[in-house]
């Protein structure tokens, strides 16, 4: 049974769940970023998501800037979800979760391995309630191995997965700590993999009737992004090093300053593009220079090459530099801030920046849906609701609790 949109945050009347995952119901026992990010993606693609929060709410409700007493991030982080409160440490909460599980296709959680089992919600208990349930677990190190019980957040996964080492400036250029990406990339990448795993497991279930378990580790999710770093080490013993704003394997591809101080990325790392750039710089002879004739040679002399390009870019204001690069059809862009993104005509045209009506915050900007699947609405069906906003609707519609049962759960402190 699909629930009616919650009244505090409905933004798109008439945009009932469509898209490829319409008809699937997901139960989220998640907190912070990774599992909630996974379920947001599933909800964006049409799934009905029931999010369980502790009575005080998910901690992310308090993260970031504040507006009208709330965190604007929550509006996006919990969009397309029905949010209910349950104190999972209370004995009465266990049966409520199992009653919800019986109505769901998948469960997504990111507690430490074994934590749900301690609450009486281990895999065997969940499967007894719903034999074909898909269970997706996101943790720092995975559900087994010697480190399974160690505490971790996304930043730990980023470090163990090798990304924090590579997102730094080149060796010898700074004594500052390795640079963070700037967002919770470890959690988000793990969330993407969890969402993919859920979809894959549901597809298999459609074919075989069997449920399954999805095991996603933060550290492994990041490690999987490292391109050729592992085979290069295995074959050559080479440890890939950070390269600042450049790419270690291709040149020229870096950020260069304009005369008015704007950083402009220029990616001219193919032979035709490099010839175009050299000509645009007024130095076509550089294309035939032995130091720069071929990608391997350019990478070997990248500091000299970047110095020559910088010497040219600082003679032009950013607008003139971008116009010149656009005219030569060389891939480029200034480094965008979120204000640049919000004003970008391409982002606006494709609905990647859109204004929606949030029941708690009023008009607010949301990103569009990624990936685009034909027929899936690009606008959210609802924004992140208030704490416990959907308690009565969800528990009344799914397990079928009556008002007296819901009131008793409140009295017991379960809700």
UniProtKB/TrEMBL annotation:
Coiled-coil portions: none
SUPFAM superfamilies tied to this protein: CoA-transferase family III (CaiB/BaiF) (SSF89796)
Keywords per UniProt: Transferase
Keyword hit for tRNA processing: no
Any GO MF annotation of the entry: CoA-transferase activity
Name of the protein described by the UniProt record: CoA transferase
